Amino acid sequence: MATAATERLRNYLEAFHRLGTDAGAQPAWVRALRDRGFARFCEAGFPTTKNEDWRFTNVNAIAQTPFQLARDARQLGAIYGDTLDACRIPGAACQLVFLNGRFAHELSELGSLPEGVRVESLAQAIAHDGKSLESHLGHYLNIERDAFAALNTAFIEDGAYVYLPRRTVLEAPIYFLFISIPTQHPEMTNPRNLIVAEDATEASIVEDYVSLGSGISFSNAVTELVAGENAVISHYLLEREDRQAFNVSTLRTQQGRSANVSSHSVLLGGGLVRNNVHPVLAGEGGECLINGLFIGNGSQHMDNYMLVEHASPHCSSRQFYNGILDGHSHGVFHGRIIVHKDAQKTDAKQTNRNLLLSDDAQIDTKPQLEIYADDVKCTHGATIGQVEENALFYLRSRGIDEASARSLLLLAFANECLDRMKCLPVREYLQELVQGWLPGISTPAGDTTANNVEIARRWEEVG
Amino acid sequence: MSLLEIKNLHANIHGNEILKGVDLTINAGEVHSIMGPNGSGKSTLAQVLARREAYTVTQGQVLLNGKDLLAMKPEEAACEGLFMAFQYPVEIPGISNAYFLRAALNAIRKYRGQEELDAMDFLPLLKEKMRLLEMDDRFLNRPVNEGFSGGEKKRNEIVQMAVLEPRMAILDETDSGLDIDALKIVAKGVNTMRAADRAILVVTHYQRLLDYIIPDYVHVLVDGRIVKSGGKELAFELEEKGYGWTEPASAAAR
């Protein structure tokens, strides 16, 4: 196997062998899963922009960096809980903190949860009760399609595990905080999360990615979420790592009959960010909401890759993504909807709206519908524009100064997404966070007559 | 002193001259109406007064309460007491009516050196004004104008006017597209605002609104100039005879 490709992946090979020795206690089925992941990763290598799924995102910077497995962060010196308090989302039922991908018990608050509910580190869960995980872990994620998913699988070690027994209702959110600590030697973490929500459960789960300090790090996270019949689950992803961080995250949800899953993403930080959301509506009458907000500035690159699979009849999906791009930032929205042959009466809708605040900001938005059933309703639309001059004038004519009016309109645009979030403590936290994060407002340059130009494309396909 | 004094105002947009020398003086306590056919420049006049930047003033002077209005930004004009009810109110998804209007009122109060109102003080005020315009409380938290009917949008404009309490209010075609019930509600709201220290300028194409908001003076704007001024009876005359008889021969070829 001494090909040029494996030569370039040498650091991963070494890391893989090292993890094999260090995590020698992993059960055989986990090792087999990891072997398959690594084999697939070596075979596929990092994607290039020739791959249609990666057309707008060049991951060369990740491929060229010799990442090592992140060391145990506790060796890097003491980290005090106080440092983290600033970023913790209040009002959570429990908080699991991960330092460089590993569960940090001393920084976590497990709270008191209803009987039968399990919220713990994946490594612990595998060690103590591997049997109940075996039928789920790795069963939903497609490692063939995505090399990053394969890479994550190759390095399964730790992450969060949630199990909600039938009819559990949790009002307060479950909160995971993943902390990257950049070092001089670039390190990667591969958090792997598994959420199993049995029938008729209700819960909100937050994944939050932050950096302590600045520098290069690479988080390659995967979450598999299984929602049973009638389960109502909301998943929140918050990316606010350092501007030099690489972050690839994949949410794969498997929805049972009449299950209702929401995926909310808020991308603020990171240098190169890829956010994959892949729900499969596997049971009749399922619903999913995919809601996202990305705010880019500087040279940030934020790629949102949505793949919604309608695999059963009478399901509905809604996608709403809003992007605000300033500086030289580059946003991508790729919304793919696949309606399988038997998924009659599918009702799928996709909307991507973008505000470009500077001449150098860029957005690529691409809908992609593949419909194999004949009685479906799929609509999609995308808009790219600037802060609307009409709205700006309206606010100013009421006494609000121009800078405040611009901020207010950006906040309004962001709120369209935040308002869809049902979990109150999370929504309020994010509203405040986003308000502080909105870019220093640059005045739209260029021809003033072009200010109102909004390129809008809307078309509807009704089968 | 007059609240609004317009002298020989010329304005154009994209090089087309729309206003060709407008003269108009409005004193506190008065209600004026500007009527005119489509394309005569009525809305342009309203927009120029509200300081829309797309229009270029090439000649003339406008004083708002003695200050140079044409040197003001839109927000400064608003803080100095000018208000325009939009012909086409703008929808702003993501910001609630109550939040927007409190931000506006506080911006104006701040400019005037008054204390800002918190939500507790502001809400009763807003609710009172909304009742006046027969809008129910659910409009408080709905995004500004989003999904409102035409009539609801116009009523919402008058709610804003009632909250912001301008010295000089301009209603730009507030009556267009309203049914008679909505028209009466809007007129009632406007009439409540009539006051000795306030002036109102009603810009309209139709005489109908003036049955309910009775003006002290009516002006006819044709081809960018005021060609005739008179009392409220002028509005009835226009209704009867149309605009044709007011048009100077030179403008007929336009």
Describe this structure in words.
- The complex is a heterodimer of chains A (463) and B (254).
- With 463 residues, chain A is of the alpha/beta class.
- Chain A has one domain (4-462).
- Chain A has ten helices and 22 strands.
- In chain A, strands 1, 4, 5, 7, 8, 10, 12, 14, 16, 18 and 20 form an eleven-stranded mixed beta sheet that branches. Chain A has an eleven-stranded mixed beta sheet with strand order 3-2-6-9-11-13-15-17-19-21-22, covered by helices on one side.
- Chain A is globular.
- Chain A starts with a helix and ends with a strand.
- The model of chain A is unreliable at 441-463 (pLDDT under 50).
- Chain B is an alpha/beta fold and 254 residues long.
- Chain B has helices at 42-49, 74-79, 97-111, 119-132, 138-141, 150-164, 180-192, 233-241, 249-252; strands at 2-13, 16-27, 31-35, 56-64, 67-68, 82-85, 92-96, 143-144, 168-172, 199-204, 217-222, 225-230.
- Chain B starts with a strand and ends with a helix.
- Chain B has nine helices and twelve strands.
- The longest helix of chain B is centred in the middle third of the chain and has 15 residues, at 97-111.
- Chain B is 35% helix and 29% strand.
- In chain B, the strands form three sheets. A six-stranded mixed beta sheet of chain B has the order 6-9-10-3-11-12, with helices on both faces.
- Chain B has one domain: Rossmann fold (3-Layer(aba) Sandwich).
- Chain A binds chain B through residues 388, 390-391, 393-402, 404-405, 408-409, 411-416, 419, 448-449, and chain B through 14, 50-54, 73-75, 77-79, 83-84, 86, 89-90, 92-95, 100-101, 103-105, 107-108, 111, 143, 160, 164.
